[in-house]
Amino acid sequence: MTDVTRKDFDEVMVPCYNPMAIIPVRGEGARIWDQQDKEYVDFAGGIAVSCLGHCHPVMVEALTKQANQLWHLSNVMTNEPALRLAKKLVELSFADKVFFANSGAEANEAALKLARRYAVDEFGEQKSKIIAFNQGFHGRTFFTVTVGGQSAYSDGFGPKPGDIDHIPYNDIKAFEAAISDETCAVMMEPLQGEGGIIAPTSEFVQTVRELCDKHNALLIFDEVQTGNGRTGDFYAYQGLGVTPDILSTAKSLGGGFPVGAMLTTEKLAKHLKIGTHGSTYGGNPLACAVAEAVVSHVSQPDVLQGVKEREGLFRAELERINAKYPIFAEIRGKGLLLGAELNDEWKGRSRDVLVAAGEEGLMVLIAGASVVRFTPSLVITPEEIKQGFARFEAAIAKLYNA
Hints:
Elements: H1 6-12, E1 24-28, E2 31-34, E3 39-42, H2 45-48, H3 57-67, H4 80-91, E4 97-101, H5 104-123, E5 129-133, H6 142-147, H7 151-154, E6 164-167, H8 172-178, E7 183-188, H9 202-214, E8 218-222, E9 246-249, E10 260-264, H10 266-269, H11 285-298, H12 301-324, E11 328-334, E12 337-342, H13 350-359, E13 362-363, E14 365-366, E15 371-374, H14 382-401
Parallel strand pairs: 3-13, 5-6, 5-7, 7-8, 8-9
Antiparallel strand pairs: 1-2, 2-3, 4-10, 9-10, 11-12, 12-15, 14-15
Helix pairs in contact: 3-11, 4-11, 12-14, 13-14
């Protein structure tokens, strides 16, 4: 086997990423080890993907079993793992129908195309406007990155898809002014992730639902980051008391194996007739077998309750550390999608925290320049949490006393 280093990345990879110097080579639970066998506690979870940690036995067993049976068919035929997974997702949600894709971006692309197709079929070409929110993130395809509310990701690629309006999240007056009978869909995260871990107010999310109904607009919830137990409910909408018309899910759906899905009602699904949308790999037996195992495990009541308990441990540790080294203004989020916002004195230094934590053997994330993000395994042990925060405290102390 050829030895590779971080230097090789710069030589052979397209430079749209700037990865850390370490190269992980194995993982178990909420820990990984790099090429030098240095151990790290993982509070990042592959950006909210590794919901059962690394190499969880239920995932390894499902993948190994399926790998010895059937890998790929295409959608000329269906397969057993896809049907079993679809049935589980329908049982666990409002949905009647499922479309499988390979990623969150693809699931969101399908959601947006369905919304536009439904509007054209039922109301005509003029009902095409999409409302989305500033600092939202919905993927990197040209359609989804344009709907996402961060122009830095969508500028510079030529003319963008049209009829997309962005307004401030949680701004009821702005939303009331934006929506009309020409609105075909509203796309929102039920808890903004990349935008800084911003939760919707109850009044805001209720108003969005009510005005969507009034104007015959579809409500799309992007649950790519919040879904599959991340907030302590299987889907975040279940904790908000508001049900969307279309929901996208990915990231932790496969626990690390690429898979995404769009969930919707029978009334809407019929508008994606044969040939109107598709995916070569969507519904892949390997992906669906792993996702079925993940969903079966994560949806258990004790696992979901455990997410809420672990949230309490994370908040308590962050508050304890912040009392000694006050650099955070606010701890926010829900379940194990948490953000620690830096105060005015430390604003803009979230990457410094990430790097310092890495040096101490802890992996964290950022959500913008001033928010440190935590998206660990949903089954991370209390011992791993305690050890991770000991390393986090050491990193913060070094920064604070520098």
